[in-house]
């Protein structure tokens, strides 16, 4: 029995992402994240370079996902919106939470404030919540466990920021330098690897156990 192409595209079920698919996602995400980070500085000389890198990565991720997960047509626009609004919104909410925590600590223990690493962890965790929620709106159309994507993104953004700062300091300490090149290389590299590996592993788990809808005889 021949299945209509349009019907197959809209009614098919997600498939487990193969090892090659996960590897491609990890490579594309890692490289794209580095270019996005570097684009923030490059924008001073080449305006719009960071935005172009963000658009390119979102589209490439969509091209990968669409082979394995149906109904992801809104991945690129929602991801771009999340990347644009997530930092300001997430850090604002994280700032409110931090203020409440610091008020509580000051009242109970007399502590002046929280360490910077804790502030970064909390602040960027909420950035991850915003980004993960936007992307979950897309993944949730086909993946029953898509809600865990929000948790993964929250941990990825929070822990990734702390790990990136540590990686930057480690790389910078291995060699004397007169400029920030090594620090940025360590930061961007660590941040990219954390995001790529964590989201790749999450996709492998979220799509595991799902299969194509049985076809007729």
Percent of sequence in beta strands:
under 5%
Q: How many structural domains are formed by the residues?
A: 1
Supply Rg. Answer: 20 Å
Distance between the termini: 6 Å
Q: With helices defined by DSSP (H or I, 4 residues minimum), what is the helix count?
A: 7
Described by the principal axes of the CA atoms, the overall outline is globular
**Uncertain segments:** 1-10, 212-217
Structural class: mainly alpha
Number of strands: 0
Record keyword descriptors for this entry:
disordered C terminus; mainly alpha; 7 helices
Mind explaining what this structure looks like?
This protein has 217 residues and is mostly helical. It has one domain (5-206). 73% of the residues lie in helices and 0% in strands. It contains seven helices and no strands. The protein has helices at 5-11, 19-42, 49-65, 75-108, 116-139, 148-173, 181-206. The radius of gyration is 20 Å and the shape is globular. The termini are close together. The model is unreliable at 1-10 and 212-217 (pLDDT under 50).
Describe the structure concisely for a colleague.
Helices cover 73% and strands 0% of the residues.
């Amino acid at each position: 029995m021949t299945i209509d192409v349009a019907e197959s595209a809209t009614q098919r079920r997600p498939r487990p992402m193969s090892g090659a698919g996960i590897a491609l996602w990890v490579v594309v995400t890692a490289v794209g994240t580095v270019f996005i980070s570097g684009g923030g500085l490059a924008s001073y000389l080449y305006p719009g370079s960071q935005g172009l890198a963000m658009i390119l990565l979102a589209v490439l991720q969509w091209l990968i996902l669409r082979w394995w997960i149906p109904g992801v047509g809104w991945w690129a626009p929602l991801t771009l919106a999340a990347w644009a609004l997530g930092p300001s919104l997430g850090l604002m909410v994280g700032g409110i939470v931090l203020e409440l925590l610091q008020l509580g600590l000051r009242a109970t223990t007399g502590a002046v404030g929280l360490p910077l690493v804790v502030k970064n962890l909390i602040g960027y965790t909420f950035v991850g919540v915003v980004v993960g929620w936007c992307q979950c709106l897309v993944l949730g159309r086909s993946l029953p466990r898509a809600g865990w994507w929000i948790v993964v993104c929250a941990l990825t953004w929070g822990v990734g920021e702390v790990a990136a700062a540590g990686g930057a300091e480690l790389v910078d300490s291995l060699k004397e330098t007169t400029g920030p090149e090594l620090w940025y290389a360590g930061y961007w590299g660590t941040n990219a690897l954390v995001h790529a590996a964590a989201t790749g592993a999450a996709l492998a788990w979220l799509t595991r156990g799902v299969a194509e809808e049985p076809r007729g005889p």
